[in-house]
Specification:
Blueprint lengths: L1 H27 L3 E5 L2 E5 L1 H33 L4 H27 L2 H14 L3 H15 L2 H11 L6 H15 L2 H14 L4 H14 L2 H13 L5 H21 L3 H14 L4 H13 L3 H14 L3 H10 L5 H12 L6 H13 L3 H8 L2 H4 L3 H13 L4 H12 L6 E4 L5 E2 L15 E4 L55 E3 L6 E6 L12 E4 L29 E5 L2 E4 L20
Antiparallel strand pairs: 1-2, 3-4, 3-5, 6-7, 7-8, 9-10
Helix pairs in contact: 3-4, 3-5, 4-5, 5-6, 6-7, 7-8, 8-9, 9-10, 10-11, 11-12, 12-13, 13-14, 13-15, 14-15, 16-17, 17-18, 17-20, 18-20, 20-21
Length: about 575
C-alpha cells in the first residue's frame, strides 16, 4: 500500500514539474538554448515538447531492447522464461484433465481406464500425493490388490498421505481376513486421527473380535467424550464390555475382580441379563443371598428370562418344591402377567404335583402361543391328571413342529445363537443380540435355546457354569417322537398289579415304525411303588429302542402323523412327564 502511494506521489511530482516548466516557457517566450560542439541550438516551446517526447520514446525502446536481450540470455542459460511457463502450463492442464477423467473413471467403476488416466496424470503432474491416491483407487477398482498395496506403502512416506496409506492397507487386510494385522493398522490410524468415525468403529469391532475388551472400553469412552455416542448407549455398551471382561477375568481365576466388574456392569445396565446372572452368582459365592435376590428381582421386573429363574433357584439349591414355590413368589410378583412368569409358575406347580394349579397358571398359552415349552408343560399336566396317552402324544406331536419360543436373535442378520455373546457369530455385530422369538419358522431354527424346561424342579449346584459367558441353565429335554402307549421314546406307564411304573419297548426290526401291537411291557425292577416323576427327574436307565430312519408320531392307533423330514430329532434329551399311579 505504501508503494502504491509512493508511485502516485512520483507521478504527481512529474506532472507538476512539467506543468511548471511549460508555464515558465510560455511566460518568457524564449526557447531552450543548447551549445554542443561550438554550435548553439535554440528550441522553441513546441520544439522542446516534441524533443522531450522523442527522448522518452527512445528511452522506452532502449529499455525493451535490453529486456529482450536479457530474456534471450536467460533462455540460452536455461532459466524460466515465458516459453517455459507456456509449456509448463500446458503440461499442468493435461495432467489435471487426466486426473479429473481418472476420478470419473473410478466413480463409474472403469478400473482399466482409471489406471491409464492415473499414469498419465502422474506423468504430467509433479504431485505424487494426489496421483498416487488416484492410482491406488484405480488399482482397487480394477481388482489389482498387489498394485494397490504398493501404492499405499508409497503413501506412508509422505506425512500428508500417511493416514490414507494406513487406512488403505487396513481395509486390504480386512478383506483378506487378517484381523490381527488389521487391528494393529487400525490402532495406528486411530493414533493419527482419533476423531475419525470409520476408524473408531473399525477399531472397536476388531477389538471385540480379538477379545481386547479393555481397549474397546477406552475407544468407547473416547467416542462418548467426542459427542459421537449418546450417554445411554455408551452406558449400555460399556456394561456389555465390562461383563465380557469380567467373564475372562473369572476364567483366569481372579474371582474378586470378576465379581466387582460383574456387579458394576449390572448397576450400569440392570436389563442386561448375563450381567445380572453373573452379579447374582458373585453375591451367592459371597454368601449374600439378599443382594443376589434383589439383583435378580430387579432384572426380572425389566426383562424376565429363564436364566434369571435358574439363578434364583441356585440361591437355595436344596429345598422342597413347596418351599421353592413360596420363595419364588417374590420373583414372580415383579412381573406377574408376563408369559415367562406364567410358564415359571406352571413349572413350579408341576414340581409340587399341583396339576390343576399348573393348568390354571398356564392358562391359554398353549393355544394362543404354542411353543415347545408351553406344549411340554401342557403334556405334563395332561399326563399328571391321568389323561389318555393319545391326548398326550397329540400334544407332543404339536410340540415337535412348534416354535422354540424366545431365543438370542441378532437384530442385524437374524442369526439365532444358543448363548448370549457381545458379538454375533454370523455378522460380527456388537451388542445386537436380543431375547425374542425369531422370525424364521421353528423347524428352520439353527439351535434350541437350551431353556425349554428350566432346572427349577431339582436343585443344582450354584457354582456350575459361573465362568461361562452366559449362565447356561441345565436345559430340559426336547420332545421326541412318541410311539403308541408311550410319552417320548422311553416313558413310564402305570402298572396296577406291581404298583410300579413299567417301560414299554417296541419289538420291531431296525428302521421299522412300531405299531400298538409291537410293544411289550418290561418292569424296571422289583419293589414298592416309585414316586411320581417330575419334568426334570432323571430318566431310569433302560435299553433304548431302535430309532426309525424317519420318525413318526402316532397320535392314535392306526393314525400316523409324519414329522417334517427337515427336523432332526434330538439325540440325547427326552421329555419326562409327571404321572400318577392309576
Amino acid at each position: 500500500m505504501l508503494l502504491s502511494a509512493l508511485k502516485i506521489l512520483i507521478f504527481f511530482a512529474i506532472v507538476l514539474v512539467l506543468t511548471l516548466g511549460a508555464m515558465q516557457l510560455s511566460e518568457t517566450g524564449q526557447g531552450l538554448s543548447m551549445v554542443y560542439g561550438g554550435t548553439e541550438y535554440t528550441l522553441g516551446p513546441v520544439q522542446l515538447v516534441i524533443a522531450a517526447l522523442v527522448i522518452v520514446l527512445l528511452g522506452w525502446i532502449i529499455v525493451r531492447l535490453l529486456a529482450l536481450l536479457l530474456a534471450f540470455l536467460r533462455f540460452l542459460l536455461g532459466d524460466e522464461t515465458a516459453i517455459n511457463r507456456y509449456f509448463a502450463r500446458s503440461r499442468e492442464r493435461k495432467g489435471y484433465d487426466a486426473l479429473s477423467e481418472g476420478m470419473l473413471a473410478v466413480a463409474s467403476g472403469e478400473g482399466k481406464l482409471a489406471q491409464d488416466k492415473a499414469a498419465k496424470a502422474a506423468k504430467f503432474l509433479d504431485k505424487p500425493h494426489v496421483t498416487d491416491l488416484l492410482a491406488a483407487q484405480a488399482a482397487e477398482v480394477a481388482g489389482d490388490s498387489r498394485k494397490a498395496g504398493e501404492v499405499y506403502r508409497r503413501l506412508l512416506s509422505d506425512p500428508r498421505t500417511r493416514f490414507v496409506g494406513i487406512r488403505g492397507l487396513m481395509r486390504q487386510k480386512l478383506d483378506e481376513g487378517d484381523t490381527a494385522t488389521a487391528l494393529k493398522l487400525a490402532e495406528k490410524a486411530y493414533a493419527l486421527k482419533p476423531k475419525h468415525t470409520e476408524v473408531q468403529d473399525t477399531l472397536l469391532q476388531l477389538q471385540t473380535r480379538q477379545g481386547d475388551w479393555k481397549g474397546a472400553r477406552a475407544v468407547l469412552k473416547d467416542k462418548r467424550q467426542q459427542g459421537q455416542l449418546p450417554k445411554d448407549v455408551h452406558i449400555r455398551r460399556d456394561a456389555v464390555l465390562a461383563l465380557k471382561e469380567a467373564s475372562e477375568v473369572l476364567a483366569h481365576g481372579n474371582s474378586i475382580s470378576a465379581r466387582e466388574a460383574a456387579i458394576s456392569a449390572n448397576r450400569a445396565s440392570p436389563d442386561l441379563i448375563p450381567a445380572a446372572v453373573l452379579a447374582a452368582r458373585s453375591y451367592i459365592a459371597q454368601n449374600d443371598p439378599r443382594n443376589a435376590s434383589r439383583v435378580l428381582q430387579k432384572t426380572w421386573s425389566v426383562r424376565p428370562h429363564p436364566a434369571i429363574a435358574a439363578t434364583y433357584a441356585e440361591i437355595v439349591p436344596d429345598e422342597k418344591p413347596a418351599a421353592r414355590l413360596r420363595r419364588f413368589e417374590d420373583l414372580m410378583r415383579q412381573n406377574p402377567d408376563q408369559e415367562e412368569t406364567r410358564l415359571l409358575r406352571a413349572e413350579l406347580l408341576l414340581a409340587a404335583e399341583d396339576f390343576p394349579g399348573a393348568r390354571r397358571a398356564l392358562g391359554d398359552l398353549a393355544e394362543k402361543h404354542p411353543t415347545v415349552r408351553s406344549l411340554s408343560i401342557l403334556a405334563a399336566v395332561e399326563r399328571g391328571e391321568g389323561s389318555d396317552d393319545a391326548v398326550v402324544r397329540g400334544i407332543l406331536a404339536k410340540a415337535l413342529v412348534a416354535s422354540r419360543g424366545p431365543q438370542w436373535v441378532c437384530d442385524k442378520c437374524h442369526n439365532v445363537m444358543a448363548d448370549w455373546s457381545p458379538t454375533c457369530d454370523s455378522c460380527g455385530g456388537f451388542d445386537t443380540l436380543t431375547w425374542r422369538e425369531p422370525d424364521t419358522p421353528a423347524w428352520s431354527a439353527a439351535a434350541s435355546n437350551g431353556v425349554e424346561m428350566l432346572p427349577l424342579l431339582v436343585g443344582t449346584g450354584h457354582g456350575e457354569g459361573a465362568a461361562s459367558d452366559m449362565p447356561a441353565p441345565v436345559a430340559a429335554p426336547r420332545p421326541q417322537p412318541a410311539a403308541p402307549g408311550m410319552v417320548g421314546p422311553q416313558a413310564e406307564a402305570p402298572e396296577a398289579e406291581a404298583g410300579r411304573a413299567a417301560v414299554e419297548i417296541p419289538d420291531v426290526s431296525p428302521g421299522m415304525v412300531p405299531r400298538e401291537s409291537d410293544y411289550r411291557r418290561v418292569s424296571p425292577g422289583v419293589g414298592g411303588a416309585e414316586p411320581a416323576m417330575t419334568v426334570t427327574d432323571p430318566e431310569p436307565a433302560v435299553a433304548a429302542p431302535p430309532q426309525p430312519a424317519r420318525p413318526s408320531v402316532v397320535a392314535e392307533q392306526g393314525d400316523i402323523l409324519p414329522v417334517r423330514p427337515d427336523v432332526e430329532p434330538p439325540e440325547q434329551d427326552e421329555v419326562k412327564i409327571a404321572g400318577k399311579n392309576r
